[in-house]
């Protein structure tokens, strides 16, 4: 497992990403990408300890992707950004809802605000989210399973199968069509 870089190293890394020297920006991006691929720096743990640094890092790399004058640096920033987003929890990288009482960013899976302690279910923005059918907690549209109760959110839909010869509806588990006798599934 990778190490957690110190406050000074984090500050230097952000400074290098802001540098006017192309080589400094490029090498900082290379450091981030290689640290992720070689698992030298534990960005996940750093995000839990200091999420503000992670957000700043991603914002700076995104800014370099969009606005840097050097094409080589832009390409490396694009690779670096992809690596960072794959490494970090994607839910943390998108815009997170904020507590309406204190403004603190909260994850949808929280029950209470971590700063002021207010119940998340009573927040105004919760009504914009779909509720779990089982536990009635808000769920992210990208979730397959409710993080609170484990309820499966995406139901498996049975699609009716049609016999390719007589065009009648048949059960998908049948090997032969009972209407025309043609073989529906091939046995291996």
Instruction: List unreliable stretches of 5+ residues.
Output: none
Mean pLDDT: 83
Q: How helical, in percent, are the residues?
A: 25-40%
Major sheet summary line: 2 strands, antiparallel
3D shape: flat
Task: Name a few traits of the molecule.
two-stranded antiparallel ribbon, mainly alpha, 4 strands, two-stranded antiparallel sheet
What does the model show?
By secondary structure, the protein is mostly helical. The chain has helices spanning 7-17, 22-37, 43-49, 51-67, 71-87, 90-93; strands at residues 130-131, 138-139, 161-162, 169-170. It has a two-stranded antiparallel sheet. Strand 1 (130-131) and strand 2 form a beta hairpin. The radius of gyration is 25 Å and the shape is flat. The two termini are 45 Å apart.
Task: Give a short synopsis of this structure.
The protein is mainly alpha-helical and 188 residues long. It is built from 6 helices and 4 strands; from the N terminus they run ααααααββββ.
SSE topology sketch:
Elements: H1 7-17, H2 22-37, H3 43-49, H4 51-67, H5 71-87, H6 90-93, E1 130-131, E2 138-139, E3 161-162, E4 169-170
